[in-house]
Design a protein that fits this description.
This protein has about 425 residues and is mainly α. About 80% of the residues lie in helices and about 0% in strands. Strands 1-2 form a two-stranded antiparallel ribbon. Helix 13 (about 225-255) crosses helix 18 and helix 14 (about 270-295) runs parallel beside helix 16. The longest helix is centred in the last third of the chain and has 48 residues, at about 390-435. The protein is globular, with a radius of gyration of 22 Å.
Length: about 425
């Protein structure tokens, strides 16, 4: 008898995956300011309370650590119960976080708000990326990149309004207005999210990348050397990007370019505001672009190209960054290639360990961002003791090492792992046929 598809299987129209991708991108855009808008608040908070940049930046580290390290728990719920409830919960938490930031009159309250915001952002981030990997098993690089682009570029359209509101009404009002607005939008979008009714098949005739036929649980994934090589590379590259994201405003002020009026691309604004806006656009564009590139030339090859460009951009910044135009273009270039880690590593993880537990496995790998976040406060300390040249030197070195690991360690290691998995799968299939 011919197998008839179930009603639930028939409800996934061809356009459904694109709608789900769009909803995920919008959710990610709504949480972007939690990370990329933070730099605008650092100096105003310090001017009011005089806690010091390092103490205030610890809140950023706590946020990132909480956002990432709890993702495996949050994605565990996603793999079993779907994305809707988890994202709705995340929307409530991110709104609460910024409301607390608006009223924080102590470091303790600032850090508590960072924990709550991290939980909310992780719930949204891990869910949306994991859901994209399930809907697009044959285009994981593009899907993860497009979803992560929402997080990378989401702050671009709100940087100028936030900066203006901070200047006119105070940073407290900016926290309150944007926090509540973004939280409400995430809650509404969560009602539209869902996982595929049935597992989406891989179109192997169009597939240009090696992928496993065996789904591995998170417990099995963390027992492989491939996972830990990816984890180490993720930490190396993410630490530099997080340092730059958190410190871009202090760097601009120390380089004496923050308030320099700039005319570029027909627009005119202060160099710092211009830089942050352009950084978000390049970051957002780079994530799906490099994801698409990796779908065609391979994950590791794309990593090598991106990490090398990042190191070069930092060298240019270090040498010529006191020119406001160089500052803007060098930071834009850096963030244009930095954000691809949030598309390439989840895609590589899905290729290596399968679709069934894609959200949980990618969530475990994403905790590397939390590990990297602990280097962010040290950037302030290192810059105070040795200058920004030491910070940029560290970022350059980490990117060069990661680029080398991509092609000389990860690529051959993952090839051997997938070959062994394929042999094991074929042996299991042969045994099943024999017993039948």
């Amino acid at each position: 008898m011919e197998h008839q598809p179930s009603p639930s299987a028939r409800q996934d129209a061809p356009s459904a995956k694109w709608w789900q991708l769009a909803f995920g991108v919008l959710c990610m855009a709504m949480i972007a300011n939690l990370q990329y808008g933070w730099t605008l608040f650092v100096d105003p908070i310090d001017a009011k309370f005089h806690w010091g940049r390092a103490a205030i930046q610890l809140a950023f580290t706590i946020f990132v650590a909480t956002e990432t390290w709890l993702v495996p728990i949050e994605t565990w719920f996603v793999d079993r119960y779907g994305p809707r409830v988890v994202v709705c919960f995340g929307g409530v938490m991110i709104a609460l976080s910024w409301v607390l930031n608006a009223h924080a009159d102590s470091l303790f309250l600032l850090y508590a708000a960072a924990v709550i915001g991290g939980i909310g952002a992780g719930s949204v981030y891990g869910t949306c990326v994991g859901n994209a990997l399930k809907w697009f098993p044959d285009r994981r690089g593009l899907a993860a990149g497009a979803t992560a682009a929402g997080f990378g570029a989401g702050a671009a359209v709100t940087v100028v309004p936030i900066a203006k509101m901070i200047a006119s009404s105070g940073y407290e009002q900016a926290f309150l207005v944007f926090g509540l607005g973004q939280g409400i939008i995430v809650i509404l979008l969560s009602l539209l999210l869902r996982k595929p009714s049935v597992a989406v098949p891989i179109k192997r005739k169009n597939l240009r990348l090696p992928q496993t036929k065996v789904d591995r649980t998170p417990r099995q994934a963390v027992r492989t050397p491939v996972f830990w090589v990816m984890y180490a590379m993720f930490v190396m590259v993410a630490s530099g990007g997080l340092m730059a994201a958190a410190q871009i405003a202090p760097i601009a002020h120390d380089f004496k370019v923050a308030d320099v009026p700039i005319s570029l691309f027909g627009l005119q604004m202060a160099a710092l505001t211009f830089a942050i806006s352009l950084d978000r656009i390049f970051d957002g564009f780079g994530r799906p672009f490099f994801g698409w590139v990796s779908d065609n030339i391979g994950r590791e090859n794309t990593m090598f190209i991106a990490f090398t460009i990042a190191a070069t951009a930092c060298i240019v910044m270090l040498a010529y960054g006191r020119n406001p135009y160089v500052f803007i273009l060098a930071t834009a270039t850096y963030f244009g290639v930095f954000g691809e880690i949030y598309s390439l590593f989840p895609a590589t993880c899905g290729d290596t360990f399968g679709s069934k537990f894609a959200a949980s496995n990618a969530g475990l790998l994403y905790t590397a961002k939390g590990t990297a976040a602990f280097l962010v406060p040290f950037a302030s300390l290192i810059s105070a003791a040795y200058g920004w040249s030491a910070v940029f030197g560290l970022i350059i070195g980490l990117n060069i090492v990661a680029a080398a690991l991509a092609v000389f360690v990860l690529k051959p290691l993952r090839r051997r792992y997938l070959a062994a998995e394929a042999e094991r799968y074929e042996a299991m299939q042969a045994e099943a046929v024999r017993l039948a």
